[in-house]
Amino acid sequence: MNEDKKHFNELLHGAGLNKKRFAELTGVAYGTIANWGSENKPIPSWVESWLTLYIETKECGELKALIKNVVCKENE
To answer: Are 34 and 19 within 8 A, CB to CB?
Structure first.
């Protein structure tokens, strides 16, 4: 597996996504995504930043929920 494809798979895993769900979220055909990383189908430049922002947003949402939970418990 080439490094780009490996990195893409690591980012997907870090985001808690598989290729099918990523295709649904981005509107890119699954078949297109499945071919990314081959010699003839490079991974588009926007993918890494999209996944990085997705991961950060997910983490911020989790942190927000924890903070809200703590604040609610303090107000009880």
So the answer is: yes
Q: 20: which 2 tokens?
A: 């099918």
Instruction: Please give the residue range of the domain that contains residue 58.
Output: 3-74
Residue 10 · residue 51 · CB < 8 Å:
no
pTM: 0.78
- Helix (H) or strand (E) holding 15, with range, is helix 3-15
| Number of domains comprising the chain | 1
pLDDT tens per residue across all 76 residues of the chain: 688 888 899 999 999 999 999 999 999 999 999 989 877 788 999 999 999 999 999 999 989 988 988 887 777 7
